[in-house]
Design brief:
It is a single chain. With 219 residues, the protein is an alpha/beta fold. Helix content is 22%, strand content 31%. It has three helices and eleven strands. Strands 1, 2, 6, 7, 8, 9, 10 and 11 form an eight-stranded mixed β-sheet that branches. A three-stranded mixed β-sheet has the order 4-3-5, with no helix packed on it. The chain is globular. It starts with a strand and ends in a 5-residue tail after the last helix.
């Protein structure tokens, strides 16, 4: 069984880390169920294990948290649905690459419920959408914006951290970093794409598509 927890309001980042740490330890010890934790954070930047100092372009704008998840700089804030995935990867095949691909598939399937085509790009973390209505890239390719981020950590084959989907955040808050080290593409959200989607809508889609993507996996 996977427990689903939804926390209203804004959750302190360090408090969330401490909770995840304790829950992951309990899952690894067989003392707690796997868990998906849905929440929002106050505006902040996080630096993953591959973060480069030069990608923090406005260090005084929001709090900056060093974190042990993979990846580079990311933004979290109101209007962004964070889904922390505390799952036993050991019981799900012990294949980290396949697990991350499942997370990507989960996001893509969730976006599809709102008629948004999410795509993966080689060498770029997260999920992207094409923006043909925007000016093309300097090389003539279609403009693309990031709509979701993924960054996990494993301990004793239990994952924590997870993913985030931009529902209706203040997109100007991303200006203080180079998101995930990528400077030649933008950031978007479901509402920015013209979709009147609520956080509750996204939560229901996440729940439905989690069962579709992960439900068939066995130990």
């Amino acid at each position: 069984m996977v427990e689903w927890i939804t926390t209203p309001g804004l959750t302190d980042y360090r408090a969330a880390e401490a909770w995840m740490d304790a829950r992951a330890t309990a899952i690894a010890a067989g003392e707690a169920e796997e868990c998906i934790w849905l929440l929002e954070h106050p505006p902040l930047y996080t630096a993953g294990t591959s973060a480069k100092a030069a990608d923090l372009t406005d260090p005084n704008r929001f709090e900056v948290h060093q974190t042990r998840r993979g990846g580079q700089y990311t933004y979290h804030g109101p209007g962004q649905r964070v889904a922390y995935t505390l799952l036993d990867v050991g019981k799900r095949g012990r294949d980290v690459r396949a697990f991350v691909q499942s997370l990507e598939a989960w996001v893509i399937a969730t976006l599809a419920e709102f008629n948004v085509t999410g795509e993966i790009r080689e060498g770029r973390v997260g999920v992207w959408v094409t923006r043909p209505e925007k000016p093309p890239q300097p090389d003539g390719s279609v403009a693309e914006d990031k709509i979701a981020g993924i960054g996990i950590r494993l301990r004793k084959w239990v994952s924590f951290h997870g993913l985030s989907i931009n529902v209706e955040p203040d997109l100007s808050h991303f200006d203080g970093i180079v998101p995930c080290g990528i400077s030649d593409h933008g950031v978007t959200s479901l509402v920015d794409l013209g979709l009147p989607v609520t956080m509750e809508d996204v939560d229901m889609a996440l729940r439905r598509q989690f069962d579709a993507v992960f439900g068939v996996q066995t130990a």
